[in-house]
Amino acid sequence: MTPKDLHEWMAPRLDKLAEDVGEMKVVQAAQASDIRHHIKRTDLLEESVKPVAQHVAYMNGVLKFVGLVGMLVGIVVSVWKLGN
Fold first, then answer.
1. How far apart, in whole angstroms, are the C-alpha atoms of residue 32 and residue 34?
2. How many angstroms separate the Cα of 50 from the Cα of each of 24, 37, 44, 59?
3. Cα(1)–Cα(9) distance, rounded to whole angstroms?
4. Is 19 left (phi over 0), alpha (psi -120 to 50) or beta?
5. How far, in Å, CA of 67 to CA of 10, rounded?
6. Cβ neighbours of residue 1 under 8 Å, at least 6 residues apart?
7. Cβ 29 vs Cβ 37: under 8 Å
8. pTM (2 d.p.)
9. DSSP string covering 15-79, please?
10. How far apart are the C-alpha atoms of 83 and 79, rounded to whole Å?
């Protein structure tokens, strides 16, 4: 194979490779834009969920307290009924 033949054989393949790399760069740029948008949306959603998480923690504490009070009332009533 002569250098000219080699060049004629390789030129279209190199052009195709350059075209593929160009397409990959376009896709990468689009994905970078999408990921920036996704990160922004995720940050906004995380901020909006914080009050809900605080409310859930507060309600868990309240329900545990109510359960404890109910248990203590049950024990006191049981002891009182056993004494009568």
1. 5
2. 38, 21, 10, 14
3. 10
4. alpha
5. 79
6. 9
7. no
8. 0.50
9. HHHHHHHHHHHHHHHHHHHHHHHHHHHHHHHHHHHHHHHHHHHHHHHHHHHHHHHHHHHHHHHHH
10. 6
Spatial distance between the Cα atoms of 12 and 6, rounded to a whole number of angstroms: 11
pLDDT value, residue 21: 93
Per-residue pLDDT of the chain in tens (84 residues, 90 and over written 9): 788 888 889 889 999 999 999 999 999 999 999 999 999 999 999 898 999 999 999 999 999 999 999 999 999 999 999 987
Residue 67, φ and ψ in degrees, nearest 5: -65, -40
d(CA 82, CA 46): 53
Q: What residues contact 9, with CB distance under 8 A and at least 6 apart?
A: 1
